[in-house]
Amino acid sequence: MDTNHHRKILLVTGGSRGIGKSIALSAAKRGIDVILTYNHNAEQGNAVASAINNNGGKAVALHLDSSKTASLDGFATQVSQLLKSEWGRENLDYLVNNAGISQRMLIKDTTEDIFDELVNVNLKGVFFLTQKADAFN
Fold first, then answer.
1. Rounded distance, CA 22 to CA 82, Å?
2. β partners of residue 9
3. Would you say the pTM of this structure is higher than 0.70?
4. Longest CA–CA separation in the chain, Å
5. CA 97, CA 5: separation in Å to the nearest integer?
6. Where are any strands of DSSP class E within 13-125?
7. Within its chain, how far is the Cα of 88 from the centroid?
8. Do 15 and 34 touch, CB atoms closer than 8 A?
9. E strands of the chain, at which residues?
10. How far apart are CA 33 and CA 46, in angstroms?
11. pLDDT at 135 over 90
């Protein structure tokens, strides 16, 4: 019997470091398989996935820049293909929108570009990734 159909699968954005890494590792310890994303550091993302895989879990690290909402269709296709090829399924069980950025500066020093980046990563990207992930449920 294939147990891939019965294991829970978590997608956690920003899963290569910090809180996202802790979420991914903790979920794996509980028997949940993990798809995690990284933006700038593939090595960190792959290290987290390897740690999970080396401890009996199942994990894959994918690149995602959540500020680039135009790339979300391609990312959703990649996740869909991965779910089918690695787990023999079409759905996720959990989504944790953890990826985020902050700017530690005074309001008077915040440019429109900085503000747009904050909104794109912390709000727009979260909203539209959640919309795409809904197709997996």
1. 22
2. 33
3. yes
4. 61
5. 23
6. 33-38, 59-63, 94-96
7. 19
8. yes
9. 9-12, 33-38, 59-63, 94-96
10. 15
11. no
CA dist., res. 35 & res. 92, Å (int)? 9
CA 24 – CA 131 distance, rounded (Å): 21
Name the token pair of 43.
């090595």
Q: Which of 19, 75, 68, 14 is nearest to 45 (CA)?
A: 14
Task: Record the tokens describing residue 66, joined without a space.
Answer: 């959540």
List pLDDT tens digits, range 45-101: 999 999 999 999 999 999 999 999 999 999 999 999 999 999 999 999 999 999 999
Look at residues 7, 71, 70 and name the one whose alpha carbon lies nearest to residue 34. Answer: 7
Strand 9-12's sheet: what is its strand order?
Answer: 59-63, 33-38, 9-12, 94-96
Question: Position 69: which residue type?
Answer: T
Strand partners, 36: 12, 61
Residue at 1: amino acid letter: M
